[in-house]
Amino acid sequence: MRNAVPCAVIGFALLGAAVPAWAQTPTSVPPSDAPSQTPQGKEATALPPVNTPLVLKQLTIEGNQRIPSNRLMAAVPFHVGDTISQSRITEGLQDVMKVYQQENVGGKFHQNLKINGKDVIVEWTVEETGAAAEPARPLKLESADFTGNLHISGAALHKALHIQPGQTVTPAEVLSDEKAVQALYVKKNIGVTIVPEVRYPHHDDRVAITYHVTEKAPD
């Protein structure tokens, strides 16, 4: 006896500016036993419980345009031939939804199960509702300057910097340059406090960094 278990899973949409994957609030997804068992036809009157073991005979996903199927399938923790339950199938769809979250692509997800005895065919359909956000452009260093340096020349401090104008700027590289400047002061036995200030003078991806130096001369 073949039974169909249609289930529409609530999707999500991304609006406005792109949000990094790590900062996203997890999408509300249905619990593992969410699929409502809705028999179709007079003969389909007794569907198995959601935790009944079923053999996966076929798994398909359609409607995905912005994320390739092989990547979505790689996120699913089971394969054709495995013995799984309806609850586990829904969890697999949730894993697919997480991939869409990571790629900042909105979508609505639908699940249809075709159960024939102990066998099940799983059909997932995606309605994509948002394009993938453009990746953030890397920041480029336009200039680096120093203020407050009295015991070490600006030329010597600039020579210690690893980031040069035109190169990519990351927080880790700024911290590395800060430590390099500090090392020069340590060699001269001079205490120092360094506070980097990052500015966007052109309101684009170019940054200007000013290292504010507060020296404490040796006694």
Automatic annotation (TrEMBL):
Localization per record: Membrane
Disordered as annotated region, ranges: 25-49
Domain POTRA: residue ranges: 139-216
Entry GO CC: outer membrane
Keyword Signal: yes
Native organism taxonomy: Bacteria, Pseudomonadati, Pseudomonadota, Alphaproteobacteria, Acetobacterales
Pfam families: POTRA (PF07244)
Descriptive protein name: POTRA domain-containing protein
Presence of the UniProt keyword Membrane in the record: yes
UniProt KW keywords: Membrane, Signal
Major localization class: membrane
Signal sequence region: 1-23
